[in-house]
Batch of 2 targets.
Target 1
Amino acid sequence: MQIVILNDAATVAAYGANIFATQLQNKPTSVLGLATGSTPVALYQQLIAKNTAGEISFSHVTTFNLDEYLGLAGDHPQSYRYFMNEQLFSHIDINKENTFVPPGDAVNPITACKEYEDRITAAGGVDIQLLGIGRNGHIGFNEPSSGLCSRTRVKTLTKATVDDNARFFAGDEYQPHLSITMGIGTILEAKKVVLLATGENKADAVYAMVEGPLMAKCPASALQLHKDAVIVIDKAAASKLEDLEFYQHIEAENQKLQAQLATL
Ligand code: GLP
């Protein structure tokens, strides 16, 4: 894991956006894995700005989102499909037909999960996967106890996740307790993963992911097995890490090396 600790949420978003921009510049036909939640919004704004400025293009890109509420169609304002259109797709030069979100209104969700996996495989796999993290360590909607090799499937949300996400739903509005989510095994197959976390309320989950044991109780700890996982966090989210100074030292050395390589 590469642990990058930055001052604040804005710097985290900028760092993450640069990784995605470089990916698109190196491979315009990239397959992107995308995420929802409040954390990636600032990164999406940066990508929109770069696209508007002509620095990057999404015209040959395919995207796959991590998850969706089961029971919400894509035109529902709280669906993740709607979120992605609003926060990113409607503002960039992407062909929406190349953007995929698990279908929350699938007649047969079991078949839909298999089809989603097949579609990712047919696209050549995900080149780079963006992730947030839940306070309980979930990635996508892989809640604690999720199998570390799990595939795209229907998952029941924990009460903690339902409560955390209740802020997006009006008081009397139906809030799903089920989801379709890429599995942890699916996520681990992405060639690169970039996880963003900001704020003190993520500090326990970040600690468990980085310094805790590999365990289903913290699904994000599975990223310890990934060969190219970049964890980009602000100081508040990093505040419970025991080896903080070591990670900062490694990253400073890493930056020096990158600067040297750039002069070759
Ligand atoms: C939801 C999403 C996750 C996301 C998490 C954290 O549960 N399914 O993919 O990482 O929320 O969201 P936030 O960034 O708003 O804290």
Note: Residues 34 and 65 are 5 Å apart (CA to CA).
Target 2
Amino acid sequence: MKVYIKTYGCQMNERDSNALGAALLQRGYELTDNEKEADILLFNTCSVREQAELKAIGKVGILKKLKKVRPHILIGMLGCMAQSKGNTLLEKLPHLDFVIGTDQLQKLPDIIEMELAKREQLSFTETNTDISQSMAQHLETNSVSDFIAIMRGCDMFCSYCIVPYVRGREKSREIAEIADEAKKLADKGIKEIMLLGQNVSAFGLEQNSKTRPSESPFADLLREINSIKGIERVRFISPHPFFFNDKLINTIAECEKVCNNIHLPLQSGSNRILKLMNRRYDSAMYMEIVKKLKKIVPDITFSTDVIVAFPGETDEDFNCTRNIMNEVGFDNAYIFKYSPREGTPAAKYQDQIPQHIKEERNQILLADLKERTTEHNKLMEDRIFKILVEGPSQRNPERWCGRTTNNKVTVFDYNQSLKTGDIIEVHIDRSSSMTLFGSILNH
Ligand code: SAH
Ligand code: SF4
Ligand code: F3S
């Protein structure tokens, strides 16, 4: 039987879908990228913005026709929106067979068997605190990198965010178990590990710490992964600035495999808005982390998440965001227009901002960002960087591409001795706002 899995949302969902795919293969199912030939269609959903929800609901909605022609197929919705809207989805989409929330995903193979035996709409959305091995399987891949989920859930309750409601309480895995997973990936030829969590800098800490901790179990984890033979690069998303302390900053500088590109969500540059967002840092604290890292980590680059037009955001607040973004000089930024999420405090705040202002502020930040990245990429010209080779470039398969440690996509001519996973030295000849173009040295 063939299974099609479509994933919406963040890397955490990608990781979950990957683990579920591997579990289904083990049970004798086949995976397919072609939904038309699938017997079982699964949609791993996201609730973080309204757009993400509408996309998945729209997609499953139009499958009603397919089910008329092929009544034997099973359709399931999984993950974050299944968690928050489970029964509503089943009512709204009568051709939907089952919903499985974020804490019950590991039961998917059993649930499919149950559904195949007796076809009725079922919902599995109970919460569960056990996050041991069950979701640690990986699909085989030709890629040089893979994800490891080091924790699940989030306890931060930022006032705009639905994640704590759909992913439940923060739970960290054991360092030894994570290291074991990383070693297995290294044995299969994976060179780069991306450690995933909604709040990785709080990994392994006591819950709900009111004061900024001086310890950092996450730093200990980085050291452990840094020591694994075969792993060449370690990246992570997303750390929260509140837990990004000196111990973590120094560990990043000391661990040679931990990459000099940090994704540090800013959300806003206005202290007034940061407070309303319940982010637990101000712009000065954020800049202090950036400055310390810039001082001790050579060629470091930063990326971020920003929300424009949070309720009540004035021109002045927006300009604070614009200024701090230019001051940091991000090399990438995910800029989101605020989307009210039912059940979160900010959805009830007065002064929701009209759509045209959301649009305008979004465009301004995107234009600034492009200017900054063009400038930064120019500064990388005529220098030599180590590139982890990924494979043929999408635009032109006669050229190959890879990344610098600070996460710049770099394109170079193919030569016959090149293999995916090689680390090569490349001289940067020219650049654009998105890409570096270079020549390979001695390979
Ligand atoms: N845990 C991560 C992010 C998870 S959600 C962190 O704290 O950085 C990914 C991003 O979506 C957030 O960083 C935020 O910028 C954005 N986001 C979350 N809720 C949103 C909302 N209601 N409207 C618009 N963007 C939102
Ligand atoms: Fe959402 Fe905040 Fe948790 Fe990130 S830290 S997932 S933005 S509540
Ligand atoms: Fe979306 Fe869930 Fe990730 S809400 S952003 S898929 S944690």
Note: The CA atoms of residues 252 and 410 lie 23 Å apart.
